[in-house]
């Protein structure tokens, strides 16, 4: 589910990222300088707002500007995603951004295929999505374990079989 969420965030950032290209580079306001409406819309970002760089502030301000014209279900989605975004660790946010950049470099037909797959996944019942996420997590865990095991059998000093197979002596009574 985390991978699906990160993929969803990456797609969502695609929309927001298009605003960045059109935004002029200028000093962005601090939290105290935002209007009451902007502060209400961007409330999940309040603790981190002043630490954001100008480009990210610009992106969020663009979202806040469009927010009043969004349908209620879209507003709810934006709020939910914003709340999830601020809960991500810096490493997870970095991963989402890298995934977004990778998606941007795909050919249009591959992007369309991924959008269709995402739409199909999004329409699944929550229980089915959880099941798929659990399966994917198990596959990922197995792949990581295999990678660790493969590294252990590479070059470098290895314990001898006598060392690894020798029984541990029992303490004297």
User: Which percent band covers the strand fraction?
Assistant: under 5%
Distance from N terminus to C terminus (CA atoms, Å) equals: 53 Å
Provide the residue-averaged pLDDT: 80
* Silhouette: globular
Q: Main sheet, how many strands, which sense, barrel?
A: none
Separate helix tally: 8
Q: Assembly state here?
A: single chain
Unreliable stretches covering 5 or more consecutive residues: 18-23, 158-171
SSE run? HHHHHHHH
Overall structural class, as computed from helix and strand content, comes to mainly alpha
- Rg value: 23 Å
Please count the beta strands (DSSP E, at least 2 residues each): 0
Bin the helical content: 55-70%
At a glance:
With 173 residues, this protein is an all-alpha fold.
Give the secondary structure arrangement, pairings included.
Elements: H1 2-22, H2 36-41, H3 54-66, H4 72-87, H5 90-104, H6 108-123, H7 126-152, H8 161-165
Helix pairs in contact: 1-3, 1-5
Protein architecture, described:
The protein is mainly α and 173 residues long. It is built from eight helices and no strands. It has helices at residues 2-22, 36-41, 54-66, 72-87, 90-104, 108-123, 126-152, 161-165. Helix 1 (2-22) crosses helix 3.
Features:
69% helix, 173 residues, single chain, mainly alpha, globular
């Amino acid at each position: 589910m985390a991978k699906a969420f990160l993929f969803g965030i990456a797609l969502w950032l695609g929309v927001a990222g298009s605003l960045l290209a059109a935004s002029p580079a200028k000093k962005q306001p601090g939290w105290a300088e935002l209007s009451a409406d902007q502060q209400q819309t961007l409330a999940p970002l309040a603790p981190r707002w002043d630490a954001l760089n100008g480009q990210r502030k610009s992106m969020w301000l663009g979202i806040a500007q469009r927010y009043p014209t969004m349908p209620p279900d879209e507003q709810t989605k934006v709020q939910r995603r914003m709340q999830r975004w601020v809960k991500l660790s810096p490493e997870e946010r970095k991963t989402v951004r890298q995934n977004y950049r990778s998606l941007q470099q795909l050919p249009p037909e591959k992007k369309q295929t991924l959008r269709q797959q995402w739409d199909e996944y999004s329409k699944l019942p929550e229980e089915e999505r959880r099941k798929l996420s659990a399966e994917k997590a198990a596959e990922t865990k197995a792949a990581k374990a295999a990678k660790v095991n493969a590294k252990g059998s590479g070059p470098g000093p290895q314990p001898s079989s006598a060392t690894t197979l020798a029984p541990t002596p029992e303490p004297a009574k």
